[in-house]
Structures are given as structure tokens and as C-alpha cells.
Hints:
Layout: E1 2-6, H1 10-21, E2 25-29, H2 33-40, H3 51-61, E3 64-67, H4 70-74, E4 79-82, H5 97-112, E5 118-121, H6 130-142, E6 150-153, H7 163-168, E7 172-177, H8 180-189, E8 196-200, H9 202-233, H10 238-246, E9 254-255, E10 258-259, H11 279-292, H12 298-309, H13 312-322, E11 329-333, H14 348-358, E12 362-366, H15 371-378, E13 385-387, H16 391-397, E14 400-403, E15 422-425, E16 439-442
Parallel strand pairs: 1-2, 1-4, 2-3, 4-5, 5-6, 7-8, 11-12, 11-14, 12-13, 14-15, 15-16
Antiparallel strand pairs: 6-7, 9-10
Helix pairs in contact: 1-3, 5-6, 9-11, 9-12, 11-12
The structure holds uridine-5'-diphosphate-glucuronic acid.
Uridine-5'-diphosphate-glucuronic acid binds at residues 156-160, 213, 220, 266-269, 271, 273-276, 278-279, 337-338.
Amino acid sequence: MRIVIAGTGYVGLVSGTCLAAKGHNVICIDIKPSIVANINKAIPPIYEEGLEALLQQVITSGHLKAGVDLQVALTDAEGVIIAVGTPNNTQGTIDLTYVLACAREIGAYIKKVDRFLPVIVKSTVVPGTTDTAIKNEIEQASGKKLGQFGLGMNPEFLREGKAVSDFMEPDRIVLGYEDEGTLAFLQALYAPWGCEKLAVNTRTAELIKYTNNALLATQISAVNEIANLAAAMGGIDVQDVMRGVYLDKRWNPSIDGQRVNPEILAYLVPGCGFGGSCFPKDVQALHAHGDQLGLPMAMMKAVLSVNDTQPLEVIAGLKKVVGDLAGQRCLVLGLAFKPETDDVRESASLRIISALLDHKAQVSAHDPVAVKNFATALGPRSNGITYVSDWKSAAATAEVIIIATKWPEYSALSTLGLQGKIIFDARRLLKKEDLPFARYLSIGYNGHATRSPLKVR
Ligand code: UGA
């Protein structure tokens, strides 16, 4: 099928590349000529595992092209996908400027032609946006009514760093539609995928996307709140508490006597809070949306409020042990919001390092790929940090070591035999038993050992 995708961010480009890899003919549109030129040379503007190789393949086969002119690209298109950004504005509601501008331009094209064109929204928009604001914009710009053009909403569930494999092997595909012509288009578009497909109206599709992220974020904040209680009590390691919880078969079923260890358990790990471009923005947008409808959304508010202060639990935990942090040599390991990415948006490390600087600690920091982005995000305060490339040598001279991102390489900390350091493992990368030579602290463990250590039989 001939498809146009507007927007070449990580959603638009990954979707376009994967659809092209399944045999569709895709034109990706971006307003920035430099991005378009690079895509046509198979150079992706973002790093995503497997993207460059797949892009190379579809550019070479001629299944994907990039361009700057949406109107021209639409000439031959059987359908168009909107995948432009939806940032949050200062009130926490989502900013539809780019989505609506794109809908308007598509509407202007629909006005000129006498054929049915399905318009699919892939950008994350709050429930009720596609069938109101976006529909209205297309109707106004085209002078036509829904039915003369098609309208759908097809949310993405792509994790950064795993976006290509998440697109190629999805758990399910949600086909939000407002008319039968669009449903038929979406079914044909995703015919190469054998997973379960759920056809629903567009506002249900939109709420599925938000609910998915909101529930994962809720789990994280709930576990973090319990962890903070455990640290306040002392004599408990919340990790032992969670091990008891993970053995409930509703979280972790067993098949033929073997635990399945489902991926959901990776969202029940006590830590210094969630970040990234999705969880914080989506929970905030859902909360603001409820507010506009007169619903207080108390749960979403609490999820955000726990997450907002969670990075500071690291500082509070350290202060209880160290006392004054002024002048302490603190090494922060990990700046990205999660491993396998150079993205630092809403990263807990931004808050942790800012607080350490506020306390006049001597801060050094390491990340395998995110230093440049981090320095830009922190701004002038970044001058107060020493970025190190050899974290193992830096660890030897630091007094306090904080693991803020779960990069696997930091697990080598347990092999360095460093004596007398304070190690605050804010992501539960290590086991305290592996660091007998250090003072181990974590979210949910204030360092006061229990008399009766965990024994599993
Ligand atoms: C998330 C969702 O997982 C995707 O399904 C969704 O498509 C995407 O948002 C989106 O809306 O586009 P992503 O933001 O890439 O994907 O990151 P995750 O791997 O889910 O992690 C999010 C954050 O939660 C990270 O900061 C991570 O460190 C944190 N986290 C995760 C915790 O703080 N505790 C945990 O137990 C697990």
C-alpha cells in the first residue's frame, strides 16, 4: 500500500521504516530538509536499536523515501498517518498545535481531490481529540464531512531503545476507527502482522494508550511509596518485601513448576522514579484532562506527586548516613532516564545532581552515551560537574557512589573491591551481599541491616 507519514520523530520514522520493511511503499514527511536528506541517505536522526540497518534496507529497496512536501506526497497516497509531536504546555495539557496544523494541511489536500483518504492519528492525544478537534479541523479545511474522508486512531506502544522490535513484534494492534472505510484500510495496512487486533472507536483507542502508561506509572509510584516507608522504618529491605510479593501467582504464575517471571515485574522495582518523554507527560496530560472535565483524578495526581520527590529520596537517604554533603566527593553513575538510550528528558539524574550541587557536594558523573544531552539539559550548572569517561578510576577516589541509571556495566562495581565507600544503588542493580566492603544504601533500604537475613528455600 502507498502510505504517507507526517513526522519523523522516533514514532514516525520507526513506524515508517517497519511498515516499509513489511512491503508497503512509504513516504516520510518532515519540515526540516536536513532530516529528510539524512533519511534518504539512510542516516536516522535518532538512535534506536536496529533502526539504521532496517532503514538502509528499505531505502535500498525503494520502499521508503523522505520528503518535505506533504501535499505532493499525498497525490498517490492510499492513507496518511499523523505522527508529529504532542508536547505538554505549561498547564500540563497537551499542545495540539502540530497535530492540528498537520490535520489542516491534509484537509486542504482533501478539498482538492475527489477521492476517499483515510487519515490516521498515531500521535498520542488525550481521549476525545481525534473525533472532535482533529475531525473538525479536517472538515473545516476540506469543506467535506467525515465519511467523505476517513478517520482513525492507531496508538503506538513503543519503548525507547526497543521501538523497532516493539513495532515488528507487537503484543497487539489497536485499530481505532470512525468509519468502515478506515477500518478496512487499517486492517489491510496491518495484514502482515499476525498478532491480536482490537477494533474500537477512536476515543477508546486513545484511552487504551493512556491507561497502559498510567497503570505502569501507578505501579512504579506505589512501590516507591512503600519503599520510602520501609526506609523510614529501618530494619527492612524493601527488596525482600517485593520478593515476597513477586511470589504471588497473580504477578508471577508458574508453569510446570517454573516461574514465568513476566515483564511486568520490571515495573515493580523500587527506585528513584520514572522519567522519559512518555510516563510523566501522559500521566500529567490525563490528570489535566480530568481536571478540565471536573474530575479530580486523585490517583494520577498522587502518582505524579510521589514521582516528583522520589529522586530526592536519594539525597535524604545519604544525608542520614553522611550528615552534611558539602565537599563530599560524589560520583553519579548514569544520566539517561533509562539504560540503552541517550535521552535525558525527565531523568531522575537531573534532580539528583541539582540537589547534590545545592548541597555543595563535589560532583562527578558518568554515562556511556548521554553526557552531551545531559550537559545541555542542565544548562550553566553543568559547569560545576566533572564528567568522567573512566568511571572505575573515578569510583576509586569518590566517597559516595550513586547508581542512578541501570546500565549493566555498573554492576562491575562489585568487582572493584573498593573499601569503605558509600554506595547508593537507586536502581537496584546490585545486591547488597555483593558489596560487603561498602556501606550499601538504596531506595527502601536505609542501611540498617536486619538481624534475620532473607533465606529462600
Ligand atoms: C513507555 C512505555 O513502556 C511504552 O509502552 C510506551 O509506548 C512509551 O512509554 C510511550 O508512551 O511512547 P519508555 O518511556 O520508552 O516507554 O520507557 P520504559 O522502559 O517503559 O521506562 C519508563 C521509565 O520508568 C524509566 O525512567 C524507567 O527507569 C522507569 N521505571 C521502570 C522505574 O522507575 N521503575 C520501574 O520499576 C520500571
